[in-house]
Write the structure tokens for this entry.
Amino acid sequence: MRGMGEFLLRFVIGGVVVSLLAALGDVFKPKSFAGLFGAAPSVALATLALTAISKGVTYSGIEARSMCLGAVALGAYAFVGAFFVKKLQLQALPAMLAAMPIWFMAVLILYFALLAGKN
Amino acid sequence: MPKVDLKAIRKTRPDQYALRFAFGGLITAVAGLIAVRFGPVIGGLFLGFPAILPASVSLVQDHAKQDKPEQEAKKEAGDDSLGASIGSLGLIAFGLTVWLGVSYVQFALLLVLGGAVWLTVSISAWYLFGGLRK
């Protein structure tokens, strides 16, 4: 029950933070500037804060270190997505979904190169 | 120079806001579950997962299509994704700030500091790349 409660709490707080930052990004022009908010630490803020409360700040610090690699992978993914949409003129949603394996591949490579086996 | 257009908020439909809420909430909750199951090293990787980027980029294309040709709409959507790519530098800086500062700064303050670092690095990088030619 406690696990379900925490899942719901994370869902609601994460949803609110992500929605607010995304709405903030909507109002900016040009779109390349608005896109900066697509890489806002919205999920991270909600997760790190809740984890610090439940598991302690050291645990959150470890998550933040790993997040740096997730962010590098996000940069690679967004760059490839931009290429698909802007240069190849593919439809945005299918193009961004098609580029998703880039994030998983990048994060796997970075994890095994830099973090595997570490605490 | 970036401009603010508050009318853009009204272009987003309630179901599009709901979609962002659902994706954002889901990835936050799932990242928590992954950390519980596999530990913080693997769980933390998902804090950089592009949770709502596909939906956001698609939304930019839909909005631009209302008053621009298809090709121009796709260019704007691509620019949005390119901006996120630059913004990832800010996200890396946020992660480094929290990771390196966790033993020295009170955690709530550290998150605020990390947010300020994210914003500063993201905007600086955007200017450094020439506003990605606007």
